[in-house]
Amino acid sequence: MKVKRSERLIDMTRYLLEKPHKLVSLTYFAKRYDSAKSSISEDLSIVKKTFKERGTGTLETVPGAAGGVRYIPEIGKEEAREFVEDMCERLSEANRLLPGGYVYLSDLLGEPQILRQIGKIIASQYLHNSIDAVMTVATKGVPIAQAVSSYLNVPFVMVRRDSKITEGSTVSINYVSGSSERIEKMELSKRSLKRGSRVLIVDDFMKGGGTVNGMKSLIEEFEAQLVGVTVFAESTFNGDRMIEDYTSLLCVDEVDIRDKTIHVTPGNYFNKKEID
Amino acid sequence: MKVKRSERLIDMTRYLLEKPHKLVSLTYFAKRYDSAKSSISEDLSIVKKTFKERGTGTLETVPGAAGGVRYIPEIGKEEAREFVEDMCERLSEANRLLPGGYVYLSDLLGEPQILRQIGKIIASQYLHNSIDAVMTVATKGVPIAQAVSSYLNVPFVMVRRDSKITEGSTVSINYVSGSSERIEKMELSKRSLKRGSRVLIVDDFMKGGGTVNGMKSLIEEFEAQLVGVTVFAESTFNGDRMIEDYTSLLCVDEVDIRDKTIHVTPGNYFNKKEID
């Protein structure tokens, strides 16, 4: 039975939002709603316009017989900036200060609405890159990797510091922790990453960059390719940072343990050229 | 400027899908689209009908001045069953078999489309419960907790087996691992769970039930309340399982290490009364 335009628009929107970056043919929608391709095409141009106006993202049209549409989630620069500023405020709350100058983040990284925004912001940075997998290190990076992976619609892989029997054979590397200068070990299940994969590294927090550097070595070990590195927060680091090319959403500038103050500003995300 | 119905429907759908379980007032939509409440009300009844017909979930209407609408994600029984049967097949792949009779799951639990379905299925089970937080144990349970948390729109908390400086003060308990009968320790950041919270436990895999039992003790320690336990997969366990009241989506019945076969069937999810 032919489905009305209003119902098509609702279901189409839902369908596209749940399958970002996936090419959907007009024929698929025409069959799904028992409607003419010309009507579907009109529907899609309304969806496209609305998505654009409301900052939901881009609906790309791929012409030709093998063509269709593809929804690319993209956050507006204004919305991203508002979110990051809001996060600066929340991270600056004095009661987040932990012994050793660490900042408590776990509550924020367990909030679905916050994770959605982080995922969308990081995914927006890599819109035009082809990415096969998002990589992070357990445990705190996982929610961020999952959020980004959901918007890029590619799998994520978890590097671990401890070996688990449930991972099967693993490849392990040693790395130097940037802040403590200790030698540590990290490993990744052998079957979790194909040779030649294009990998995006994400993490919750970067100090010396040692952990990210370890993941870079792992990527080499797997003969895969690094696409980029984005962290939720970086802290100013007195010393040689092991990583130069990275993006941060937030920067913890100053932690004063005596006065119990934390000073947080937007990271270098907004300075990156691609985002303009 | 007044927004057309077609555009309203698209943006409304997106808005509601991104904020499950949240009450949105008609006034909010009326302002957002500069439209009369009566038009918004008509829009919402079209959305409601389409969501229902397409198995997207329920749009609940709350009458009165403080009322509005609330989107409750809910998977259709048929779709849930199809997904679970598909997972049974994938889990039965011989190359998933690991030494010790373990089953490799990490690839599946890193796939955004699979996690979305798992999240929706588990959230559907607890539609009518009031839940304040989803709890899991690091590392492999995290993606499941995050997926469920996103559909229930409540935070998730991660219990850890190792203490990390970035968690602040923690509450720790000892528990007996069900399968190995060793005494282990797990802990949770003190500030991550409020007293009296209603908690849903989820995990990727349950054998003897020791880990889940540990989380139950932690919930008591926090003077919180257990709402339910749902795991992605359980394995048949020769011994006294420490947990009786739980739900599983899948059941690994039989692992034959010599023949390299795994036999997986749907778990007890579909036997639960609430789901009919």
How would you characterize the overall build of this protein?
Two copies of one chain form a homodimer. The first copy, chain A, is α/β, with parallel strands linked by helices and 276 residues long. Chain A has two domains: 5-73, Arc Repressor Mutant, subunit A (Orthogonal Bundle), CATH 1.10.10; 77-275, Rossmann fold. Helix content of chain A is 33%, strand content 28%. The first copy, chain A, has a six-stranded mixed sheet with strand order 7-6-10-11-12-13, with helices on both faces. In chain A, a hairpin with a 5-residue loop joins strand 2 and strand 3 (68-73). In chain A, helix 5 (112-125) packs across helix 6 (142-152). Chain A is globular, with a radius of gyration of 21 Å. The model of chain A has no long low-confidence stretch (mean pLDDT 93). Chains A and B meet through helix 1, helix 3, strand 5, helix 5 and helix 6 of A and helix 1, helix 3, strand 5, helix 5 and helix 6 of B.
